[in-house]
Amino acid sequence: MKNFILLLFLISSSVQLFSQKFTVVPQGIRSQEDTAKNFIVLEFKNKTPNQLYNSVKKYIAKTSVHQPRVYLADITDSFLRTKSYTDNIANYKGGLLGNVTITEGEFITTFEFKDNKIKISISNVFLPNNGATPILFKSYVTHPRIFNLDGTEAKSYLGVRSSLENFLNSKLTLLIEYINEKDVNW
Hints:
This protein has helices at residues 2-13, 49-63, 160-180; strands at residues 15-16, 22-25, 28-31, 40-44, 70-75, 79-93, 99-114, 117-126, 136-139, 145-148. The chain is α+β, with helices and mostly antiparallel strands. A six-stranded antiparallel β-sheet has the order 1-4-8-7-6-5.
């Protein structure tokens, strides 16, 4: 029993998240803990910047299913910026159409590596809205949007915010799990 408790402690302490998740606000993608910050920081015990950098690059290579991600900037062991394309990024309930899926999305992800930490930010989110007018984070009443100008969630696009948050945070969880995996010897 003691070994089991020790194992659970070691697994849970290998990354300190401090509730680090993304949230969607009228200004864009922010830290759920502090919406003034447009980034989150993940801390991994016993990992160097080189190990974290290599793990992120391998994760990107292994999970890129659709169009390849475009590396916009790559500074070995310290900085990585990618442009990502994805399907099924968010859903919303839209008027007479019922549930509509935003089939594509693109965004910029920036990774910075320092000590045993990764600073991650997501920007330039583009939601093409199935070829119609793209969905913006905040706009006028007549434009597809997640939030109204006053900061309230737009009723005609309910669900976009939560499904976008779920998408980004599930990808974040997969990245963390990948980094924490032990190397497999063949």
